[in-house]
Amino acid sequence: MKYAKILLGLVLALSLAATPVAAEEVEKVFLASEANYPDTVVGSSVSEKLGVPIVLTEAEELSGEAEGALEEYSPQEVVVIGGPAVVSEEVVQEVREDYEVRRLWGMTRYGTAQEVVERFWPEGAESVVLVEDPMDDERGEVLAASRGFSGERPVIPVPEGKVPAGAMNQLNEMEVEEVDVVGTDTEAIEEELDEVGIQVEEHVRAENREELRNEARERAREEVEGGDRLVVAASQGYRDVISAPSVPDHRPFLVSSADETDELVDLIEERGVEEVKIVGQPELAGEIADVLEEETDIEVDLVVERATSAVAQASELARENRPEFAERFAQRNQEWRQRIEEAEERVQERADREIERTKGIFEDWDGDDLEGRVEEAETAMEEGDYQRAREIAQEVRSEARGRRYEEVRESPEDVAREVRRETENIRERTEELREMNEEFGSMMQEDLTVEERLQVVEEFRGRRQEKVQEIMGEAGQRGREETEDVDEWMRRIGREPGRP
User: Fold this and answer.
1) Running along the chain, 500 residues long, what does each successive block of 10 average in pLDDT?
2) Phi/psi of residue 195, each to 5°?
3) Which of 47, 185, 187, 193 is the 20 to 30 Å CA partner of 282?
4) Is residue 500 part of a domain?
5) Where is 302: in which H helix or E strand?
6) Nearest C-alpha neighbor of 82 from the set 57, 61, 105
7) What's the Cα-to-Cα distance from 496 to each of 44, 139, 237, 456, rounded to whole Å?
C-alpha cells in the first residue's frame, strides 16, 4: 500500500476534466467558518443530498484557500452558513463582489440548523436525526459521529433534554414520521416529540458525552457497507472535525485517538473498505496512516500532507473532488426539483406560512425597505413559484435578523427577557397538552359502551389536533428563535466574534 501521490492526483483530475461530466456546473457552494463546527456538520447533510461542496474560511477574512476554491467552482450562488459572529459581514461583502450571496443563520447553532433545513428540505422529510449539542460543547464529536449514520437525512442539533419550539414546529410542517434521537437525556426529548405525535424510531443514548460519542461511532460503524470509501477525521478538537465535510461517495468516520485505530482496521477488513482519506489533526492523522499502511492494503490519501489547517483541508477536498461534486449535483439537483414538484401542495402550504411569519416581524419592528421584498415573495406565490417565494421570505428574515443582531449586542437584556417569556409560554402550552392526554386516559378507564368510547376518541382527537396546531402556530410566530437557557444565550452574546 502507498499514500496517494500528488502527481497521480493531478493526472486523475486532468483526465476527469476532459470528460463531459467536468463540463457540468455546481450552481451552489457552501461557505462556512472554521470557528463553528455545527454549521459545517449541518451543511454536510445537504452536501450529501445535493452534491454541494463546502468551503471553509476564517471568520474575519476570506482565506486564500477559500478564495481559490470559489474561483475554481465559479458558482452562481454562494450560500453562507452562519451569522456575522462566525462569518463576518466583511467576508460576505468581499464574496458578494464576484458572486450572488445568501446567508442562512440564526442567533445560535440551533437557529442556523433550522434555516438550513428550511431551505433545502421544502418537500419535507420522512426521517430526521436530532442530536443533543450543548452550547458549551466545543469538541463537536457527538454531532460529527452522528453524521456517519445520518446519510441524506437532516441533522438537527438541539439543546440537552429539549427540542426548541422552532425545531418542533419545523418537524410538524415537514410531516416528519420518524426521528432518531442522539443524547444523554433522550427520554425528555422523546416525551416532547410524543406529545405532538412524532414517533422516535431509534435512540442513541449514554450517560455522558464521551460514552455518547462512542455510541454514535458504533452506530456509524454499523452503517458502513462493503466497498465503501471513508473520510476519516483525526479529531482532537472541533477544528479537526470540520475539516471533513462531505465528499461524494465517502462516509465520514471519526477517530479521536491512536487507541481507536485497531477498531478502524477491523472495520476496513470486515466491510471491504476500498479507500480512506484522512483529514484533521496532522500528528494523529499520520499515526492512523502508519497503522493502515502496516496492516492493510487499501489506498490511503493523507490529505494533511498537502494542507495542515482545517480551512486548507476543506478547500483541498472540494477542489480535488470537483468532477464528482459536479456529477452528483447534476443528478441530485434534478431529482430534488422533481420531488419539489411532486410535493407542490405541501411546498405551497409551507410557502404561505413562511410569508406570514415574515410579515410578522414587521409588527414590532420598522422595516419599510424590506416590506417590498415580501411583496416579491407574494408575487412569486401568485406565479406558482413557491420555492422562490420561500427563499425570498427567508432572505428577508435573514436581513431583519442581521439588523436585530446589532441591537442585541447593544441591549441583550431586552432580547433575553423576550426569549424567556416565549420559552415559558411554549412550555405552558405543552403542559396543557399533557393534561389533556391524562384526561383522555382517565375517561377511557370508565365503563363506557363501544359507541361512547368511539365518541370520546373522536372528540379527543379533534381537541388534541387543535391544541397541537395552536402550539405549532405559536412556535412558528417566534420566527424560529432559539430556546436555550437565557443565561447561556446571554453568555454567548458577550463572546468575541468568531467564537461558536
Assistant:
1) 37 35 72 91 92 94 93 94 92 96 88 92 95 85 92 91 84 91 92 84 92 94 91 88 86 92 94 93 95 93 91 90 91 92 92 87 71 90 93 90 74 58 46 65 70 73 65 49 43 41
2) -60, -30
3) 47
4) no
5) strand 299-302
6) 105
7) 26, 18, 19, 56
Rounded to whole angstroms, what are the CA distances from 167 to 196, 291, 346, 481? 12, 42, 18, 9
Q: 258 near 278, Cβ under 8 Å? A: no
Helices 322-342 & 310-320 angle (0-180, nearest 10): 80
Please write down the HEC assignment for all residues of 447-491. Answer: CCCHHHHHHHHHHHHHHHHHHHHHHHHHHHHCCCCCCCCHHHHHH
Q: How far is CA 178 from CA 250, 313, 396, in A?
A: 25, 35, 31
> How far does the chain reach from its first CA to its final CA, in angstroms?
40
The domain in which residue 347 lies consists of: 343-410
* Distances in whole angstroms, Cα of residue 99 to Cα of each of 40, 281, 345, 467: 20, 32, 32, 45
Strand, coil or helix: what is 225? coil
Distance, in Å, from the CA atom of 166 to the CA atom of 169, rounded to the nearest integer, reads 5
Please give the tally of structural domains in the chain: 3
* Same-domain check for residues 106 and 213: yes
Q: What are the CA-CA distances from residue 38 to residues 28, 32, 43, 176, 238 (Å)?
A: 20, 10, 8, 22, 9
Q: What is the distance between the alpha carbons of residues 342 and 11, in angstroms, rounded to a whole number?
A: 42
Q: Which of 376, 410, 444 is the last residue of a domain?
A: 410
* Rounded-to-integer distance, Cα 472 and Cα 323, Å: 43
Is residue 1 situated within a structural domain?
A: no
What is the Cα 380 distance to its own chain's centre?
27
Whether the CA torsion 43, 45, 49, 54 is positive or negative: it is: positive
Q: What pLDDT does 424 receive?
A: 44
Kindly state whether residues 196 and 67 are assigned to the same domain: yes
Q: Is position 498 within any domain? A: no
Whether residues 405 and 429 fall in one domain: no
- CB neighbours of residue 497 within 10 Å: 14
For residue 260, give the DSSP letter: G
Length of the chain: 500
Burial class (CB in 10 A: 0-12, 13-18, 19+), 406: exposed
Q: How far apart are CA 119 and CA 116, in angstroms?
A: 5
* One domain, residues 355 and 266: no
Same domain, 203 and 238: yes
Residue 72 lies in a domain: yes
Taking every pair of Cα atoms in the chain, the longest distance, rounded to a whole number of angstroms, is 81
